[in-house]
Design goal:
Elements: H1 2-7, E1 14-23, E2 33-35, E3 46-51, E4 54-61, H2 70-74, E5 81-91, E6 99-100, E7 103-104, H3 107-110, H4 121-140, H5 146-175, H6 179-189, H7 192-201, H8 207-217, H9 220-227
Antiparallel strand pairs: 1-4, 1-5, 2-3, 3-4, 6-7
Helix pairs in contact: 4-5, 6-9, 7-8
The structure holds flavin-adenine dinucleotide (FAD).
C-alpha cells in the first residue's frame, strides 16, 4: 500500500505462496526438502522445512492458484495435520526506482528479494542498512530531495544489484523448463563432483557464484538444458 500510494509502481513479477504449519516430524531435521516440476508448482517450487515436531510445508507459483497444487504436496506427508495457514505474495523483481522526494522503499515493498528462492530477509536487511546510511547523510545535510536519496539505490545495488539481476534471468529461464529438463538438471547436479563443488562454493545469499562455477565446470550442461526444454 505504501508503494502504491507513494510510488505508483507494481513489482514486475510476484510469486503467490501457500504455506502451512503441519503436525509432521521430518526424519532429517537438518535439511529442507525441495519439490520441482509441474505436479508441485508452476514457475517456482514447493518446500518442506523441518521445525521439530512441526514442519512448514508450502509452495509458490507464478500466475496460477497456489492452493490448487497443495493437495498433491501435502499427500507426500502421510498423516500430516494442518495447524495453521499462511502465505501471500513475494515480489521477485525490484522496482526501477526505490527512492523519491522524502521517501525510500526497502525490502518487499521495493521488491528487493532473491528471485530464485523468494528469500527476502537477508536482502531486506541489506537494503535497510543502505537506507539508514543514506538517511543519516541526508538528515545531516537537511536534504531529502530525490537527488540526495538516489544514493540509496546506488548503495543497495552495489551490494545486491548484479546478484538479483543474474538470479532473475536464471529464474525466468527456470520457469520455461519442462519436467524432462528438470530431471536432466537434477541428474547432472546430483553427480558427486558437482555436489562437492556446490558444498564448497555455495552461498545461499549469492547463488550466482555456484551457478556460474557449476556451468563453467560442466559447459555441456547448458546444451543439455536447452535440448530438454
Ligand atoms: C510463505 C513464505 C515463506 C517465506 N520464507 C522465507 C524464508 O525462508 N527466508 C527468507 O529470507 N524469506 C522468506 N520469505 C520472504 C520474507 O518473509 C519477506 O521477504 C520478508 O518478510 C520481507 O520483510 P519486509 O520487512 O520487507 O516486509 P514485511 O515482513 O512484510 O514487513 C512489513 C511490515 O510493515 C507493516 N506495514 C505495512 N504497511 C504499513 C503502514 N502503512 N504503516 C505501518 N506499518 C505498515 C506490515 O504490517 C508488516 O509488519 C517468505 C515469504 C513467504 C510468504
Amino acid at each position: 500500500m505504501v508503494r502504491k500510494e507513494l510510488f505508483g509502481e507494481v513489482p514486475g513479477r510476484v510469486i503467490s505462496t501457500y504455506q502451512v504449519d503441519a503436525s509432521y516430524r521430518m526424519e532429517d531435521q537438518d535439511s529442507v526438502d525441495v519439490f520441482l516440476g509441474s505436479g508441485f508448482s508452476s514457475g517456482f517450487f514447493a518446500w518442506a522445512t523441518p521445525a521439530g515436531h512441526l514442519s512448514r510445508i508450502g509452495l509458490g507459483v507464478y500466475h496460477r492458484n497456489a492452493t490448487a497444487y497443495f493437495n498433491r504436496l501435502i499427500s507426500m506427508f502421510p498423516g500430516a495435520r494442518v495447524l495453521g495457514i499462511n502465505g501471500g505474495g513475494i515480489p521477485i523483481r525490484y522496482l526501477k526506482r526505490t527512492y523519491r522526494d522524502s521517501a525510500l522503499l526497502v525490502g518487499d515493498a521495493a521488491g528487493i528479494v532473491k528471485p530464485l528462492s523468494g528469500g527476502g530477509i537477508y536482502t531486506g536487511l541489506v537494503s535497510a542498512s543502505a537506507a539508514a546510511e543514506t538517511l543519516e547523510k541526508a538528515l545531516e545535510s537537511d536534504d531529502l530531495s530525490a537527488r540526495s536519496l538516489s544514493r540509496y539505490q546506488r548503495a543497495w545495488k552495489r551490494r545486491l544489484g548484479m546478484e538479483l539481476s543474474f538470479d532473475y534471468l536464471v529464474q525466468r529461464f527456470f520457469t520455461m523448463l519442462s519436467d524432462r529438463a528438470l530431471d536432466a538438471i537434477y541428474r547432472e547436479v546430483s553427480k558427486p563432483e558437482v555436489v562437492n563443488l556446490i558444498n564448497s562454493v555455495g552461498d545461499i545469499d549469492y547463488p550466482s557464484r555456484v551457478v556460474l562455477r557449476v556451468l563453467m565446470k560442466n559447459p555441456s550442461m547448458v546444451f543439455n538444458f536447452l535440448r530438454g526444454k
